Amino acid sequence: MEISSASFVISNTNVENCPKADLPEFAFIGRSNVGKSSLINMLMHQKNLAKTSSKPGKTLLINHFLVNNAWYLVDLPGYGYAKVSLKQREKLHRMISDYVLKRSNLQCLFVLVDARHQPQDIDLEFLEFLGENQVPFALVFTKTDKCNKTELNLNIENYRKRLLESWESLPPLFMSSAGKKQGRTELLDYLTQILKDLSSQVLE
Ligand code: GTP
Ligand code: MG
Predict the structure, then answer these.
(1) Which of 35, 52, 113, 157 would disulfide-bridge 142, Cβ 3.0–4.6 Å?
(2) What are the phi and psi torsion angles at 67 (to 5°)?
(3) Which of 28, 46, 53, 175 most suits a substitution to test ligand 1, by most atoms within 8 Å of the C-beta?
(4) How far does residue 201's CA lie from ligand 1's centre (Å)?
């Protein structure tokens, strides 16, 4: 897919105030600092469309970006950042779960996990929550440039095994490196396919 335009639309603390849900939407979620905003910039071929930081807790709002005047990309706050107050964490948790459960035009939630780490309970619990609520999702292993091929394959294999302990089938799996610009084609192809399927459904 060609990205001909991508621009920031609005930030919100509440899903009710997000843009009218009349275009297909894809969102990015995962632990704080996993690379959500960087991945959005990589996909859009822009350096500073979504704000990134080496410190966790940068994105604290629901950020909508309009792409090709046809669909939305959404940068969400990270979960699991320990260094904010309990009150703030609860607020973020509610913002994220309300968004995920209520956003009727959400086509796929991309859940990002750091390719260097073993499966973390917080991520597995989040995936369970998505499963229980039938939210469509895909898994993206980020920062693949930070581990070698052997480690990467081992970590992904571990993840597969762990998921298959509680899931009957695996979600779509992707790998990405924002730094090395890897994974862009695969992710955009996946989005394209979903958008195509949607438009053929509308025509049926
Ligand atoms: P929050 O908004 O705080 O939840 O973080 P985020 O998930 O949006 O992460 P962000 O994109 O801000 O990136 C966090 C840090 O990781 C930044 O220093 C990025 O440069 C770095 N980073 C992101 N993606 C990659 C990657 O693929 N490879 C490497 N080496 N670093 C990355
Ligand atoms: Mg961010």
Answers:
(1) 35
(2) -115, 130
(3) 53
(4) 36
pLDDT, tens digit (0-9, with 9 covering 90-100), for 10-62:
999 999 999 999 999 999 999 999 999 999 999 999 999 999 999 888 888 99
Q: Which protein residues touch ligand 1 with a CB less than 6 Å away?
A: 32-38, 52-54, 56-59, 77-78, 142-143, 145-146, 177-179
CA 17–ligand 1 middle distance (angstroms): 27
The packing angle between helices 149-166 and 121-132, to 10°, is 40
d(CA 21, CA 35): 26
Enumerate long-range contacts of 146-153, CB under 8 Å, 24 or more apart.
146/115, 146/116, 147/115, 147/116, 151/116, 152/115
pTM of this prediction exceeds 0.90 = yes
Q: How confident is the model at residue 163 (pLDDT cuts 50, 70, 90)?
A: very high
On whether the CB atoms of residues 62 and 104 are closer than 8 A, the answer is no
Protein residues near ligand 2, an ion, with CB under 5 A: 36-37, 58-59
Instruction: Give the pLDDT of residue 52.
Output: 93
Q: Report in angstroms the alpha-carbon separations of 1 from 44, 125, 171, 190, 191.
A: 11, 33, 22, 10, 9
Looking at residue 60, its amino acid is: L
How much is the pLDDT for 121?
A: 94
Is 203's pLDDT higher than 80? no
Q: Domains in the chain, start-ordered, CATH in brackets?
A: 6-203 (3.40.50.300)
